[in-house]
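Hi everyone, sorry if this is the wrong subforum. Our group has a chain we'd like a structural model of before ordering constructs, and none of us has done structure prediction before. Sequence below.
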Amino acid sequence: MTTPQLLSDEELETTAVVANNTMNRERGLTGVNSYARELGFDPVAHLAEQSAAPSWLDLCSGEGRALREAVSRLPAAAVLTGIDLVGPLLSSPPGRGVELITGSVADWTAPRSYDLITCVHGLHYVGDRLGLLARAASWLAPEGLLVAHLDPDSIRWADGASAGRTVLAALRAAGFAYDSRRRRLTLRGARRLQLPFVYLGADPLAGANYTGQPAVASFYRRLP
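Answer:
Right subforum, don't worry. Here is the predicted structure as tokens:
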């Protein structure tokens, strides 16, 4: 098996597959093409149960439509943050309590903890997705919930062989749960993680994944 030329995260983010302007542009809060459908629950209803000042971080948030729609249904003290590599294309302001950041999730650090952290199909375009998951786990509130779509078939060893089964076992040992049918990864409660893998780089020419869209393959070496 031939290993493709691997790109660093900085190089990866200049490619057409990653620096796209379609990710989560049209996905709203509820309905057919929505966060509620992809996550399996209504984010607003979940947040309303958390506190009088709920907080939501959406990684790879695109236009931030779900955050914009959610803010009017949440208490005035709610904090909603979205970060996206391309950023919002709409000219209208995001709304009270919503901050939309244009930047890379690869080197961004959350300034606070969050009751809910989501990444709806965004990990498919992140190079070091395991590194991001480990950092995001530390951004959760004590009773917070992280939900992200993960395709284990796109995680590989240096020789190109699938690392998915080993990686899922390590994630489960760290406290994550994985729904293989919906390809949803969940974690409850903040924690600091050190997953036993070293990121080697990514291949943006890996082809389509289970969504039918071109995606990135991430390569790792397992620590002894």
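For your construct planning: The two ends are 23 Å apart (CA to CA). Residues 129-138 form the longest helix (10 residues).
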